């Protein structure tokens, strides 16, 4: 049932993870229907406020019904963003001529200046409202998601799961190719109904106020979301944390889930030993070691002290931009120049979403949640597909996928372009990969 139209309104007030195996490259590195205004006297720091507010924005309360979500960020929040960008204090420039110390000063200055003077949040806002946004309460949290149905009668539902520092905006340019394939190089038999949720603590989903929201719990919530949407036969897709959530969905086997497609499997996030004998395995292990040595600083902080990190990210949009822009530099298939692939505008869609929703700390806590325990290899028995994009952080060897997935129906490690943010960087290729997998399970 759909009811209501909602708007965002201004609020009245402006232990270390265990590391036991080189196989886990990330683990190794770490180690009702209307807008509401907060009552006078209720601050954004109180527990009650945290359940209802997002930074300077107030999310409407939501129940089990699926409610249409109309987005309108108050102009005061955008004005405050520009004020903070104008007043930013920057550090000295790096002492090297590459990106080995992090984001170069001149490059960040260019991104921030574009953000301050040129970037148009309202364009994204209008696009999202036209696309179809919704919220519903699952397991005590308001969950935000996009939902676009195909006009093709035999379309297969798919739930697309993002990671960090991504968001639902990663998948926006895949919606057309997936829902309307006849206009994007496919056939009517390739069509999907598309569901794109925001992880708890990300985007316009609520921020958890208690611990426990790990990938398994999120997976259970997504199973309930698909049931609530009336989908009785569907697939799930994900990479990064989305890959972990998708894997847990496959482990839980909610009614209707017939298969999963991954572009970064969960076992790449764990300490599971999978072998080290073939050339492909040796290459993957070498990539893990490079990641641990050069790219893992963010990971240690988010997995151990996300709250401390969150203070800087909540207070400085320039700091939030640098924190995410660094990942676009290091993780895209762009020779460290993501603006050539994504452009400033699309990168800032994602960065601005994190800033306006004040989700720097809440999104980082997923690392803390996941790495409280050791993880055994999750062995799956339903049909699995894996697409290995060429500039992924660590390229999954087929032999590892075969050990984890007893019904590996699709595996492709010969893709022409794309990195860690596969759907964001290469939406057409991503859609083709998902179609190719889905043809094996429809």
Automatic annotation (TrEMBL):
Q: Does the keyword Amino-acid biosynthesis apply?
A: no
In the record, what terms sit under GO molecular function? Answer: epoxide hydrolase activity
On whether Lipid metabolism is a keyword of this UniProt record, the answer is no
Q: Name one Pfam family in it.
A: EHN
Domain Epoxide hydrolase N-terminal residues, every copy: 66-171
Active-site feature positions: 240, 367, 420
**Ranges in a coiled coil:** none
Q: What superkingdom does the record give?
A: Bacteria
- Family of the protein in this entry: Belongs to the peptidase S33 family.
What name does this protein carry?
A: Pimeloyl-ACP methyl ester carboxylesterase
